Amino acid sequence: MKNQWRIIVTILLVIVVAVFAILNVESVPVSFGFTTVHWPLILLLLVSILIGAILVILFSTITSLQHNRAYKELEKTSQARIAALTDDNQRLQKRLKNSGKQAAGQQDKQIQDLEAQVKALQAQLAAK
């Protein structure tokens, strides 16, 4: 459905540009500072539109690459943090099994906190 709307909008824009081209065929002077040329107005408009489209594509590509790089860095740090939290969790579970009942409640809370952090990081990673 999204692509159909894009096609419809593109067709409408092409029609508008074609009508605009038919209405603007007269030659206009263009000064480049060192010389002046006479070109059809529609040619100037189409060149301007083309340059604008190229700039938009260039800037959107740069932004997309920056976002991808940031996502990869976030993914690496999240994986490292998940591994560290998992190791801490396993270490605390072993300590809990080996220790007496006096610190069991406190260690149990630490384990739950670490498991909650691991789940939160995994949810963040899955959302990206």
Q: Mind explaining what this structure looks like?
A:
The protein has 128 residues and is mainly alpha-helical. It has helices at residues 2-23, 41-98, 104-127; strands at residues 27-31, 36-40. It has a two-stranded antiparallel ribbon with strand order 1-2. β1 and β2 form a beta hairpin. The longest helix has 58 residues, at 41-98.
Short précis:
With 128 residues, the protein is mostly helical.
What is the fold's blueprint, element by element?
Blueprint: H1 2-23, E1 27-31, E2 36-40, H2 41-98, H3 104-127
Antiparallel strand pairs: 1-2
Helix content: over 70%
- SSE string, helix = H, strand = E? HEEHH
Low-pLDDT segments: none
Chain-averaged pLDDT = 86
The outline comes out as: rod-shaped
Q: How many H/I helical runs?
A: 3
Q: Order of strands across the biggest sheet?
A: 1-2
Strand content: 5-15%
Major sheet description: 2 strands, antiparallel
- The overall strand count is 2
Structural class comes to: mainly alpha
